[in-house]
Amino acid sequence: LITGDYSRGAAGIWIENGELAYPVEELTIAGKLQDMYQNIELLGNDVDLTRTIAAPTLKISEMMIAGN
């Protein structure tokens, strides 16, 4: 049975009060894919096709995270 649950390592930039605040690394993000897709606020046009996984920058309004 496919549930859409995921848990994945991630890195990015923390956004605080609408501004880019600081880089974050060694995070774990988790949740349901459907919820993540529904919470996408902005989608970048910066896909790097030379990388193993090609994906644009995303701004997601709500996400469960763990890490330092």
Walk me through what this model shows:
By secondary structure, this protein is mostly beta strands. The protein has one domain (5-66). It has one helix and five strands. The chain has one helix at residues 33-38, and strands at 5-16, 19-32, 40-43, 58-60, 64-66. The strands form two sheets. It has a three-stranded antiparallel sheet with strand order 1-2-5. A hairpin with a 2-residue loop joins β1 (5-16) and β2. The radius of gyration is 13 Å and the shape is globular. The N and C termini lie far apart (33 Å).
Task: Briefly characterize the structure.
With 68 residues, the protein is mostly beta strands. It is built from 1 helix and 5 strands; from the N terminus they run E-E-H-E-E-E.
Structural class: mainly beta
Low-confidence stretches are none
Record the strand order, biggest sheet: 1-2-5
What portion of the residues fall into strands of 2 or more residues?
over 45%
Provide a count of the helices.
1
Q: Which shape, going by the Cα principal axes?
A: globular
The domain tally reads 1
Summarize the biggest pleated sheet.
3 strands, antiparallel
Average predicted confidence as pLDDT:
90
Oligomer: single chain
